[in-house]
Structures are given as C-alpha cells and as structure tokens.
Design a protein that fits this description.
mainly alpha, 2 domains, 3 helices
C-alpha cells in the first residue's frame, strides 16, 4: 500500500510536510507499522517441544544442585 504525495507548485516545505503527515495518518499506515513493530510469531511445534525439553532439563539440574546443597 504505497502512498504518493507530490509537492504542489509554489507550496512551501512546512505546508507540504503537514499535508503529507496528515495523509499518512489518515491512511492508517503508521498505526499498522506500530502494531507490527513488536509482533512475535507463534513458535512452531518442533520449537515448542525443544523448549519444553530444555525447561525440564534445567529444572532437573536445579533440583539436583539443591539436593547437593550447591544452591
């Protein structure tokens, strides 16, 4: 979704920038970009399984260290 804004003949820079920003704001592009900025996709099934296995391994190691009195 591209927006083309051209400077009118005899238009000063400030009024052009105001008009351009207003057009961008009305189009909703800026809002969409801000939403997508922090989007994190859902992990796939393999990554979820690997993460769960890693978590179990770490918890088991912590429990082992607690029993030995290292933590």
């Amino acid at each position: 979704m591209a927006i083309t804004i051209k400077r009118r003949k005899g238009e000063n820079l400030n009024s052009f920038l105001n008009r351009a920003f207003k057009t961008i704001k009305k189009s909703g592009i800026l809002l969409e970009v801000r939403k997508r900025k922090y989007y994190i996709p859902e992990p796939n099934e393999r990554n979820r399984k690997l993460s769960a296995l890693h978590k179990q391994k770490v918890l088991k190691e912590i429990e082992r260290k607690r029993k030995k009195g290292l933590i």
